[in-house]
Amino acid sequence: MSPETMNLKIAVQEAEAWSRRLSITVPAERVKRTRGAVSDQMARNARMPGFRKGKLPSRVVEQRFGPSIDQETVDRTIQEAYREALESQGLTPINQGKVDRIEYKPGADLTFEVELEVRPEIELTRLSGFTLTRAPLETSEDDVTGVLERLRDERATWEALEGEGLKPAAGQQVSVEITPLSTDGEPQEDATPRPYRFVIGEGQAIPDVEEAILSLGLGEEGDFTARFPDDFPDEASRGVEQRLHIRLTGIERKIAPELDDEFAKGVGEFETLEALRERIRADLETEAGQRADGELRQQLVDRILEANPFSVPNSMVDRYLDYMTGHSHEEGKPHHHTAEEEERIGAIRATLRPQAEWGLKRTLVVEHIAEQEGLNATQDEIDSKVEELASAHGRTPSEVWLQLEKSGQLEVLERELTQDKVFTFLLGQNTVA
Asked: Looking at the whole model, is its pTM more than 0.70?
């Protein structure tokens, strides 16, 4: 600590676990020296008619630049004293401190206050004695069949149907030409038929348009009134009625492949349909286990937070919301949004705020326990995981390592390994029913 720092008078008020207010007094003698340095610098750089650069008399400098010297003195003194105060108090702010209550008169001490937020110092007094419930791992044959049906659907083809006057049905794919009409039933100026192709009954067209198409036979056409639903994505179109001329030009039905051994071979390296079923069943059970583990961890964090409540800094929550929404809230930065967009973004942020606060608390709990219990992922554990990933993907560990490092995923991997160790430790301290 420098002698200059020792001359500062610093008082720290702790409003919250993460909020600090510093009251700092800088001795008049130090302020005077800073002012002299500022004045000398201005005298060296100033240019005035009748004087050589750097040769301005001090009285001229005071007359010409006095207010500017005072302002620069205050700014420089506050900046230096604030930095030294943080160092002397061992504080690491997580936001830009807000300076206020500045008092300065020439020849007197300079005083000011700074409000800032620091990383919360949490205390977890209870981590054990909780009873948790693990969700049952149930994978039914219907679940397996459902996956098989989705695979069939993905590999289905479309067959054109023929027959004059043939009407479409739900699940069939239609081709239509739609022309907007004016209120008198004539085509709008410069309006041309626009082709569309979609599956009936999947919500790809508004209900009135689907109903109109279902009333037409293949090759037929007609004029219809379609009303945009009240929940239509484009707010300006909600409830609006539009006259349309619709012509049905094609109908196709879906042809899905048979569920047999040949289908299984086409999906992947499976010799039989039963082998494919077994893989699907195993994957579903793995996914169910992962969901159950996630729900169990969430229960555990909830119980820990209930037993050890603490708050998180608003600045941390706001930055997390910036990440979640992709929109910065920082004041002073141009946002380029309309008032309606700002209102919508604000509503989204308000909805997500509880989720953001919980996520940050979870992170702080995991980090605190990892540090307290020595559970941070070791380099050997990271190397072992990289080797495991490399083996699974037929690549060398060095290739996987470089890819993870370049993409920023190496830190993510380290955090995940640390989290796994922390939750293994916590689950060992509690009861899982």
From this structure: no
